[in-house]
Fold:
Amino acid sequence: MGKKSQAFGISALILSLLFYAVSYAGSVKEPCVAGSFYPGSSEDLSLMIDGFLEKANPEKVDGRIFAIITPHAGYGYSGQVAAFGYKLIKDRPYKTVVILGTSHRYHFSGASVYPEGIFKTPLGEMSVDNDFTRKLLNQEAEISFIPQAFKEEHSIEVQLPFLQKTLPGFKIVPVVLGDCSLNTCKKFAALLKDAIGGRKDVLVVVSTDMYHGYDYEEARLMDELTLGALKNMDSEGLYYGFRDGTMQMCGGFGVVTALILAQELGYNKVKVLEHTDSAQVTGNKKKGIWTVGYASCVINALKATPVQRGREKNMLNNIQREKLLEIARNSIETYLRMGKKLEISQADPLLARVMGAFVTLNERGQLRGCIGSLVGSGPLYLTVRDMAVEAATQDPRFNPLSLSELEDVDIEISVLSPMKKITGPDEIQLGVHGVLVRKGLRSGVFLPQVAVETGWSKEEFMSNLCLHKAGLPADAWKDKTTEIYTFTAEVFSEKGLKE
Structure:
């Protein structure tokens, strides 16, 4: 073949590949494992996921959830484990979901980013966030769009129905990772960091199973080692553990990338919500039976870090905190058993000061009641006593707490500083300040931790406060006649003190 004809052939091949990639990306990506990994009927699929979510009882996590690590086997094996992470992010205000999958059928190096188009499941369609993907592509040689990586890949697809059942109004960024060097993981994490910028409405979903082998005992031990490195956020330890075979995650390079990214953005904690394997699911733990590990984890920032930032010191020591938590629990138990208030007195001068406080009850990680007094009408310990009983019995959003439920409740107390009137929202530090808005006879309040838990911007925080708490127009905080007050809160819980 002559040089001209050879060059023409190469050019034609490149053009045909480019045309294929563009047409592939712009079309509807039909599901490839509906009816096998999960039900092909929308009704059956919806009911199955509802059942998983109802049974999942994840512990509450502090701070905003930045990422979830979730399995991708058939729903009959790993769906219940996956539900633990998805239940915690349900109805949160994420607008873009980056899904880091792994290639099972097509071998390549680097990361393949799906640039645009539609992904479809029996529950409906989702759009790719092409504004986001545009920031990832054409930057690094190892990061491109490789259509074959998505053709028959299930690691992305099995996450989509869970997302459709738990999040409203989001777009996706589908990524399949092949074989990656540690440097590639770092480069991709850097691109993701730049694409996310200051946004707080981006969720990262890492799709991975764990141990793969024929020994149940080995599965248990290897997964324990892998989860230990994960909880330490040891991205390099995990990477080299995957390479030398001492640790296993089939989507491990996505996990490494997510850990690097999370640390760059200030997220400092991994919590394992649930862990099992196929041997435990099926009840067959004999040697020689194929076993796969499944774990559900979240990456988040500790709530105490942003809430306490900028404060000189805590008002209360641990002994005083424990005393207030004890008063709260005993007060609820006394009222539920006898229908009357707990008779107590306190000599501690700080606990006898007049201060506002909120008492929050969480049952198995879900809010069960929250009522408080902003300024307090008496000693702090009595305010805590009274607010604990009201949170258990008078919160209009919930049925009164029963005595049998009390043992499953974690009590959280927020002790408030005095109110300070401010001239405008520029003086508000999200995560540090609680805020009260008041206009006429209407008022509403958010505690400092609300901003951390939701990840809202200041405008979202203030708009939700006005609309949903004060019953005012969403933009009432911009009105000069609306009064705005700030305060700080010292937040502690029974579970937190134990940890």
User: Anything to note?
Assistant: The chain has two domains: 3-302, 306-493. Confidence is low (pLDDT under 50) at residues 1-23, 303-312. The CA atoms of residues 115 and 134 lie 7 Å apart. Residues 3-302 form a domain with the Protocatechuate 4,5-dioxygenase; Chain B fold (CATH 3.40.830.10).
